[in-house]
Structures are given as structure tokens and as C-alpha cells.
TrEMBL record:
GO (cellular component) term, any one: cytoplasm
Similarity section: Belongs to the SAICAR synthetase family.
Protein name according to UniProt: Phosphoribosylaminoimidazole-succinocarboxamide synthase
Top EC group: ligase
A Gene Ontology biological process term: 'de novo' IMP biosynthetic process
Transmembrane segments: none
Length: 304
């Protein structure tokens, strides 16, 4: 069964996003970050969820936080640990098993820090129309799914609830963020993390076509990597095996749901219920990419 709403009466709920719910902990510097099984596509949350999705996203993010911290000296992340906090009832602890993490509570920087290694999605649409990606000139004659000469930082605004994110030129990101030095650092970190992760994933047969990071600051202004990282919700993952320029790739993410919504004419419609076969296929895809990236079988991990 998919869990679409998280109720923890023992803790105070601070916020509820499209996928995650945030709860206060006794230590005011920390949060309990809980991923539900909700799925959002085209910025709209589906009525039903994908079984195990919250746990897959949480465990995949935890894996990446460890991998990245090991490979990028000095990288700060919000990740504290996967232990459940003290003081929950047995039912509450069971409900959030494998889907919660304790994180540092920080001030989120209002930018979606997107990095693209390959030409696809909205970038492909813009490129076909204007030869640019987020206003950046790109080499002529590029084809769908082609690798960029270098990964590019293509931020978008972090829209308030109900609004859609807007693609912006990297040089304009500081206007959203407030200062140029933070904007520069976010761009530099985004590219560094993408390159590190892309090399790691490629060794495991996965191409990270693009991904989105979020960053935050503590009260002293230090910058942290936060939110979920390099999950199938925040990234386009392609199998390296079978990758071919000039066509769409068979991606390990919620593309199955997006394609179904488009086919049914349900794109951006509220309250859509996904049929069982679409949910099952999506769950399988999420599990497939989990084992490839972490080397661990999801069902084995959660059995313990
Ligand atoms: P949003 O549009 O706000 O990103 P979302 O629907 O993507 O919403 P979720 O992923 O469901 O949001 O919820 C996670 C929320 O927690 C996001 O708003 C994210 O910015 C915020 N967040 C992530 N890490 C932290 C942190 N360390 N401290 C405070 N807030 C955080
Ligand atoms: Mg999010």
C-alpha cells in the first residue's frame, strides 16, 4: 500500500510539500524529513501514490549524501542520519520506517539548481526554437539526447505553491538568491556535485542526463546541499546500455507517469488516479535504478 499522508501526532508538522512532510524535533536545529509515496508530475500531485517510493527516495538520498561527502572534501550537507527520533509511538515509528531522515534545519536558498549534461526535456524545446538553453548559446546542429560539450548550470526559479518554476539565465540567478557571491558558489557547487555524481553513476551503467539540487544556508552563511539528492524524482537517469543520440531514452524515472498523463490528456489535471499497472511499472523502475546506483537490492535492505 502506498502512503500518501503522514500523520505523526507526537511531533509538530512544520510544512508539507508535494512529496515530503517536515516535522519539528526537540533539538530546534534539526528537522525530521519524511518522504511520502506521493508522486507529482507537471507540478501536480496524483491522487494515489507509488508503493515504497518514499523509502526509495530517502535511502537513495542518504546513499548519495555519504558518497558525495566522501568524494568532495569540505562539502556540507543537511544529512544527519536515518535513525528515527526518540518519543514516537510504535505505530508512528513503523509508519516512517525507511522513509525519514534527520536533517539540519536551514534557510533554503530560493533557486532550483539544475545541471544538465545532455540535451532533453524543456532544454530541447528551447534549443529547437532558439538554439539556446536557458538563454545560453549552444553549438549548432545538436540532436535530441546529445551530450553537451560540458555540463551546464541552468537554474530555474523556485515557485511558490501552485505556481510553475521558470527557467532563467544563470547570470540572473543572483536576483532570486539576493547576492552574487552565494549565486556563484551555488553554481560552482552544483557543477562539481553533478560531475562527481555523473562519474560515479556512469561506472554503474547510469547516465545522469540532468538533475536538480537545492541548497540552504545556516545563520553564519555557510552553504549546505539539502533536500533530496540524485533521486529518480529529481533527476533524469538513462541506462548507459542502449543510449543513442537522436531519440528519447528509456528513462528510470517518472517518465512512465508523464507519458500516460499526456496520452490520456490528463496533464496538469488535479486529483488524477493512476492505474495499477502504471504504479507497478513506476515502482519497478525506481527499484531498478536504486539497485544500480547503490549496489543494494531495495527489498533486501528494508527486510532487515
Ligand atoms: P518546493 O516547491 O517547496 O520545493 P516540493 O513539493 O518539492 O516543494 P518537498 O520535496 O515535498 O517539496 O518538500 C521538501 C521541502 O523541504 C522543500 O520545500 C525544500 O525546499 C525544504 N527543505 C529541504 N531541505 C531542508 C532543510 N534542510 N531545512 C529546511 N527546509 C528544507
Ligand atoms: Mg522537492
Amino acid at each position: 500500500m502506498a502512503l500518501t499522508s503522514i500523520s505523526l501526532p507526537s511531533l509538530q508538522k512544520l510544512a508539507s510539500g508535494k512529496v515530503r512532510d517536515l516535522f519539528a524535533l526537540d533539538d530546534a536545529d534539526k528537522l525530521l524529513f519524511v518522504a511520502s509515496d506521493r508522486l507529482s508530475a507537471f507540478d501536480v500531485v496524483m491522487k494515489n501514490g507509488i508503493p515504497n517510493k518514499g523509502a526509495i527516495l530517502t535511502l537513495a538520498s542518504a546513499h548519495w549524501f555519504r558518497v558525495l561527502a566522501e568524494r568532495i572534501p569540505g562539502l556540507k550537507t543537511h544529512f544527519i542520519g536515518l535513525d528515527a527520533p526518540a518519543g514516537l509511538t510504535a505505530d508512528e515509528a513503523r509508519a516512517i520506517r525507511h522513509r525519514s531522515m534527520q536533517v539540519r534545519k536551514l534557510n533554503v536558498i530560493k533557486i532550483e539548481a539544475i545541471v544538465r549534461g545532455y540535451l532533453t526535456g524543456s532544454a530541447w524545446n528551447e534549443y529547437q526554437a532558439k538554439g539556446t538553453v536557458h538563454g545560453l548559446a549552444m553549438p549548432p546542429g545538436m540532436r535530441l539526447s546529445e551530450r553537451f560539450p560540458e555540463p551546464i548550470y541552468t537554474p530555474s526559479t523556485k515557485a511558490d505553491q501552485g505556481e510553475h518554476d521558470e527557467n532563467i539565465h544563470p547570470d540572473d540567478a543572483w536576483r532570486e538568491i539576493g547576492d552574487r557571491e552565494t549565486a556563484r558558489r551555488v553554481q560552482e557547487l552544483s557543477l562539481q556535485i553533478y560531475k562527481t555524481a555523473a562519474a560515479y553513476a556512469e561506472e554503474r551503467g547510469i547516465i545522469i542526463a540532468d538533475t536538480k539540487f537545492e541548497f540552504a544556508r545556516d545563520d553564519e552563511g555557510a552553504i549546505y546541499l539539502v533536500d533530496e539528492v540524485l533521486t529518480p524524482d529529481s533527476s533524469r537517469f538513462w541506462p548507459k546500455d542502449g543510449y543513442e543520440v537522436g531519440r528519447d531514452q528509456d528513462s528510470f524515472d517518472k517518465q512512465i507517469v508523464r507519458n500516460w498523463l499526456i496520452k490520456e490528456g490528463l496533464k496538469r489535471r488535479e486529483g488524477v488516479e493512476m492505474p495499477r499497472d502504471i504504479c507497478e511499472a513506476t515502482e519497478r523502475r525506481y527499484k531498478e535504478v536504486f539497485v544500480k546506483l547503490t549496489g543494494q537490492d531495495f527489498d533486501e535492505v528494508v527486510k532487515e
